[in-house]
Amino acid sequence: MNEWRAIIARDPGNVAARLALAGAYLAVGERIEAFREYQRVLQMEPDQPEARRAIARLGKHGSQIQRQPPPLRLV
Rounded distance, CA 24 to CA 30, Å? Predict the structure, then answer.
């Protein structure tokens, strides 16, 4: 996942890297992070089919994720 994060840090608009990162998150059970990455993809490309399918697969869990506030950051 670090490779995908590094690519995204250099090129935040890289849809392919974001899709790969979202898939990697799903593979390790990080559904919330995967959902967020798919959302970012859809913000850039609203008709992106892979992201739309993934959001649909996340289903009810995805809608619960949307309602959660962002995590707090300790400083």
Answer: 8
